[in-house]
Design goal:
338 residues, alpha+beta, ten-stranded antiparallel beta sheet, 7 helices, 12 strands, globular
């Protein structure tokens, strides 16, 4: 912990901790290093009044029940029944041994989430999401794609997960079951998130998840689609939001910006089989009170092909499946090349 972090912990009782694997270690500056008169001159009277009126003692970083509610406000809205819009956009990169990385295509999508109170100290996150592979130059959603690794044009299979649900409680959420393919047993551990304050007005959060589970696409049935008997996936999330909003319990939902990265085997529709290498998703992400951030191409495509995905689910449903499980259920194995 840095000296600045220790000082903040003294002032507002701010411990920090790991969300699933890694601990954020980011430093902030703010107005440090300038004189008081200069700081006042740089800050409007309205801003000063706002800072003075906020009760930052509500930031109980070492309380796992406070962390539960903070995480729920990040993922959804504690005004139960209201839905929350999330969005991401970036690119998919190919990583193959012995050659430089290769941008393969764009990737953009969105989700709508609704929270439901179980009445037992746990909230259900009800979510539907789509993710579309796009042309890097035009932003148009792809129906087919030329794979330079195999010199072949393939059909693109987009992501459409409905539902993809999980529960938010005062203990670490269990890893997703992926239709029973991931059966790892995880004990109850109080959930304390690695919040990091930056200056006087921003808070950062990182969360990472690393999974290794049986592949829904086994190579004996899916020789061109399967990366092997086991599937190894990592997802890394970064959130940036206002400290004032986090400290305000009347803010039932938190708007944020950040990043989302994913390391995954070659996508099954690329027909790479067990070729060495992997795909890397590098995206920005955020939750906003407007859908204007979404590209017109993606919005139009979703309205045509997935119109129901603009409304979050209202009830818990089983099973929640990832894109691989949907692929196994909805697609058929590609013919083996002679």
């Amino acid at each position: 912990m840095t000296k600045n972090s220790k000082q903040k912990q003294t002032d507002a009782q701010l411990p920090r901790r790991d969300f699933l694997t890694n601990t954020a270690k980011l430093l902030g500056g703010g107005l440090a290093g300038i004189g008081a008169a200069q700081a006042v001159a740089m800050t409007s009277a309205k801003d000063v009044g706002a800072m003075q009126s906020v009760d930052y003692s509500t930031l109980k970083y070492n309380d796992n029940y406070w962390n539960r509610d903070a995480l729920a406000r990040i993922h959804g809205d504690l005004d139960f029944g209201k839905q929350k819009f999330g969005w991401f956009r970036g690119e998919v990169i190919g990583v193959k041994p012995g050659e430089k990385i290769r941008p393969l295509g764009g990737f953009e999508g969105f989700s709508f989430t609704r929270l439901k109170d179980t009445g037992e100290g746990v909230y259900e996150k009800l979510l539907c999401e789509v993710g579309y592979y796009t042309d890097l130059k035009t932003g148009e959603v792809l129906e087919e794609w030329y794979n330079p690794y195999i010199d072949e044009t393939v059909k693109v299979v987009h992501i459409a997960n409905d539902p993809f649900n999980f529960r938010i409680g005062p203990f670490w959420p269990k890893p997703p079951a992926y239709g029973g393919l991931n059966q790892a047993e995880v004990p109850d551990i109080p959930m304390i998130l690695p919040f990091t304050e930056v200056g006087n007005n921003k808070v950062l959060l990182q969360s990472n998840i690393h999974l290794f589970y049986r592949n829904a696409l086994q190579p004996d049935k899916w020789p061109r689609e399967s990366s092997g008997e086991m599937n190894r996936v990592s997802e890394m999330f970064t959130y940036v939001f206002d400290r004032e909003d986090l400290a305000n319990p009347s803010k039932t939902s938190l708007l944020f910006s950040g990043a989302w990265n994913r390391i995954t085997p070659w996508l099954p529709w690329m027909l790479m089989g067990q070729t060495e290498g992997h795909a890397f998703y590098n995206c920005i992400q955020g939750c906003y009170d407007t859908m204007d951030v979404m590209s017109p191409q993606v919005r139009a495509y979703a309205q045509k092909h997935h119109p129901t995905f603009f409304e979050a689910p209202t009830e818990w449903e089983e099973p929640s499946l990832s894109s691989l499980e949907h692929y196994a259920r909805e697609q058929t194995p590609a013919p083996v090349k002679e």
